[in-house]
């Protein structure tokens, strides 16, 4: 399949620059995957499409202030570093800008010497492996020196960093938010549970794999970057019991979906408590082993995320839904509106 088959024109003004004041006040496009029928609702209507016994699976990762600004030791040249993945205690896989200034052996100084990074090697995807030196606790220094790593298409300043965290964010490690979860408030989650709909949690630390553009001409040539995931025994039990009772497992976000499909594909459609690394790439032709429905945001043209939702709902249905969403001026991407595929 050609990557260009998943292209569409998106007016720039539809890219949401700021989060809505009330998380639940976004719009909701409901796409029925069997018929292609589309409904236009508000996010708070989601509860009417959920049945007692269903389970919503949310990604409880927490975004770290992963964007660091430093200077090159010796020259004072400005360097931006984005932390992607912790490899060992003080060694990280990163993206750097401008990359031409950072070669193996380059040292970068942050916070007037509170933190110093040394480039160890260049990586396949144009990144750098950096080892950090510091005194004290790394996470405390990161909170002091780092900034929230908003996607490059968001130009506006984010006044409240917590607005780029889900209300259930728990485990630090993501370089980006699992944005489908940003629509929920604690009150709305409580309403869902009152309807006897279960909540279960996975952890997937969102990294480069979710957002790296597809550089190959054909989908089959693209390789996903690995991201760390974890599922606990209690959450595995909730998910398996849901399926055993004939109820639906509903992924909240593509990250939850990819995590569940990674695990279930190894265990015959069931899930087990485990942790590891996944580079699963879901595109049309993929057979889902666990996920029945998906809540997601609207994604970038030609992205792996558009390919994932096309695998679930059909490419024609997705392109039609996106065209209708554009025509009705839905808000796109991280701070945008939501889509429910059932």
The CATH topology of the largest domain is given as QueA-like
The average pLDDT score comes to: 95
Q: Strand order within the widest sheet?
A: 2-1-17-16-14-3-12-13-15
Q: Outline the biggest β-sheet.
A: 9 strands, mixed
Overall number of structural domains: 2
CATH class of the largest domain: Alpha Beta
Q: What is the CA-atom radius of gyration, in angstroms?
A: 20 Å
Query: Beta-strand level of the residues, as a percent range?
Result: 25-35%
Stretches where pLDDT is under 50 for at least 5 consecutive residues are none
**Helix content range:** 10-25%
| CATH architecture verdict of the largest domain | 3-Layer(aba) Sandwich
End-to-end distance, in Å? 25 Å
Task: Provide the succession of SSEs.
Answer: EEEEEEEEEEHEHEHEHEHEEHHE
Counting H and I runs of at least 4 residues, what is the number of helices?
A: 7
Q: Could you explain how this protein is built, in words?
A:
- The protein has 342 residues and is an alpha/beta fold.
- It folds into two domains: 3-63 and 160-341, QueA-like, CATH 3.40.1780; 67-145, Thrombin, subunit H (Beta Barrel), CATH 2.40.10.240.
- The chain is 20% helix and 27% strand.
- It is built from seven helices and 17 strands.
- The chain has helices at 138-145, 186-194, 208-211, 233-244, 254-264, 304-313, 315-327, and strands spanning 27-31, 38-42, 55-59, 61-63, 67-72, 78-86, 91-97, 107-110, 115-122, 128-134, 171-174, 198-204, 227-231, 249-252, 274-278, 293-297, 338-341.
- The strands form three sheets. The protein has a nine-stranded mixed sheet.
- It is globular, with a radius of gyration of 20 Å.
- The two termini are 25 Å apart.
- The mean pLDDT is 95.
């Amino acid at each position: 399949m050609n990557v260009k088959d998943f292209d569409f024109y998106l007016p720039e003004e539809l890219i949401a620059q700021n989060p809505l004041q009330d998380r639940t006040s976004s719009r909701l496009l409901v796409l029925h995957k069997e018929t292609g029928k589309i409904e236009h609702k508000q996010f708070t209507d989601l509860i009417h499409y959920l049945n007692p016994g269903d389970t919503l699976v949310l990604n409880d990762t927490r975004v770290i202030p992963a964007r660091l600004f430093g200077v090159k030791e010796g020259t004072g040249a400005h360097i931006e570093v984005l932390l992607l993945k912790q490899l060992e205690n003080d060694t990280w896989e990163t993206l750097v800008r401008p990359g031409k200034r950072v070669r193996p052996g380059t040292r970068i100084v942050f916070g007037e010497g509170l933190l110093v990074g040394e480039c160890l090697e260049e990586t396949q995807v144009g990144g750098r492996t950096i080892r950090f030196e510091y005194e004290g606790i790394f996470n405390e220094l990161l909170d002091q020196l780092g900034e929230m790593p908003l996607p490059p298409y968001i130009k506006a300043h984010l006044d409240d960093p917590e607005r780029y965290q889900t209300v259930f964010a728990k485990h630090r490690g993501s370089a980006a938010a699992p944005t489908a979860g940003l629509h929920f408030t604690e009150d709305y989650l409580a309403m869902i549970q009152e309807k006897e709909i279960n909540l279960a949690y996975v952890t997937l630390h969102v990294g480069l794999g979710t957002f790296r553009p597809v550089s190959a001409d054909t989908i089959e040539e693209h390789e996903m970057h690995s991201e760390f995931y974890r599922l606990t025994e209690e959450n595995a039990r909730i998910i398996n019991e849901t399926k055993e009772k004939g109820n639906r497992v509903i992924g909240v976000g593509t990250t939850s979906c990819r995590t569940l499909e990674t695990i279930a594909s190894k265990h015959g459609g069931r899930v087990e408590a485990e942790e590891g690394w996944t580079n699963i790439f879901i595109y049309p032709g993929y057979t889902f082993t666990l996920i029945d429905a998906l809540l997601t945001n609207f994604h970038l043209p030609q992205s792996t995320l558009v390919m994932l939702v096309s695998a679930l709902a059909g490419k024609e249905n997705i392109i039609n839904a996106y065209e209708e969403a554009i025509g009705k001026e839905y808000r796109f991407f991280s701070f945008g509106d939501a889509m429910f595929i059932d």
